[in-house]
Amino acid sequence: MPVAYSGKRIIFDAIRGTSPADMIEDLAIRLPLVGWQVVRDVTGGGKVYEITSLQPALYKARVLIQDDLSYKIDNPTSNLYNFRSVVWQFMNQAETALGFPHQVKTNNTFPTFQGLFGRCQGFLSVPGEANGAWSSVAGGIPYVPIVGGMCSEGLTPPTIGNIWWSCGGSQFPFSFREQSDCYACMSYGLNDTVVVAADNNNVRPLDGLLRVLPLTATNTISHNQIPWPTRIYNTNNPLTIDAFVSWEWKIRGQLWDAFLLTAAGTLDSLTSYTDEYAGNFFNVRATTWHAQFYSSLMLIYEVTGLGSGNVAY
After folding, report:
1. For residues 229 and 216, is the Cβ–Cβ distance under 8 A?
2. Does the residue 2 lie in any domain?
């Protein structure tokens, strides 16, 4: 399958949403197990984590996870919503390019979240819930294509010092939990420069903001209201394609341990697959993180029979 396998531990587990302290505590137990390094503690018991890409370039980013009241104390000019929540804010390593302050409700509206975390990316959502306000957040460092060989001959590769993305945690359903397009309440960072989309419903599909790239037919009239025709094999099975991440109409990389199907599946369903690398077959289990009209974002949470090492192609 077209997957950037990390070859590293992935945690797929329940996270409490009963209070900010409960969520922060659950994350503090689980995130270090997949390689999120604690940089420091912050006001109210939250933490700043550093995530590092598995690629030789060792791209880095930081993630602030803090309760809303303490975040307001540390950021007096912030404009958060007034309910108990945990703020997730991705940023560059120098903490000079700050992403959108994503809020997820931790006032027992959603007693239980599900978290899927790898070495340099994380996804949090409410089981069975899509299009729910303040119920999901995601972000991380993408796998960046390696420039070399005949396919890149004559091309000038971009200079990348650091790269990251984030979405969700707002009143609007513009995140990878709900759809492929992140029109608002999203961030992406490249080389210590950040773009943050405002927390509003000003849908601007022509701006080319953060998105994954499903494979669809081009002969469609409406972007959202009419389901796009899907591309499938003549056996009626969906195609399996790369989970490319793009912004400003350029592919920047792809999600780790993930792929897209060219048909809508069932949200949060768990599916088993068999894949092959260098003549060795191994088993993969994935969850359907979003299912929208014409595509499903599949996040891998378990790989068995592969052994260790990164086999991203």
Report:
1. yes
2. no
Angle formed at CA 31 by CA 184 and CA 298, multiple of 5 degrees? 55
DSSP, res 177:
T
- Cβ atoms of 303 and 5 within 8 Å: the answer is yes
Q: Could you give the strand order of the β-sheet that contains 193-196, starting from the edge strand earlier in sequence?
A: 11-16, 112-117, 121-125, 137-140, 163-168, 186-190, 193-196
Q: Which domain holds residue 50?
A: 11-148+158-304
Those residues whose C-beta lies under 8 Å from the C-beta of residue 33, and which sit 6 or more positions away, are 9, 11
Ranges of H-type helices in the chain: 20-30, 68-74
Domain count of the fold of the chain: 1
The residues pairing with 90 across neighbouring beta strands, listed in sequence order, are 63
The two three-digit tokens of residue 288, written as one number = 């359907």
Low-confidence ranges of the chain (pLDDT < 70): 147-152, 203, 216-236, 306-313
Residue 235 burial class via C-beta count within 10 angstroms: exposed 0-12, middle 13-18, buried 19 and up = exposed
Quick: pLDDT tens for 59-75. 999 999 999 999 999 99
**How does pLDDT run across 72-93, given as a tens digit for each residue?**
999 999 989 999 999 999 999 9
Structure tokens at 222: 């409406």
- Residue 217: inside a domain: yes
Burial class (CB within 10 angstroms; exposed 0-12, middle 13-18, buried 19+) of 86: buried
Whether 269 maps to a domain, the answer reads yes
Residue 34 lies in a domain: yes
Sign of CA dihedral 61, 66, 69, 70: negative
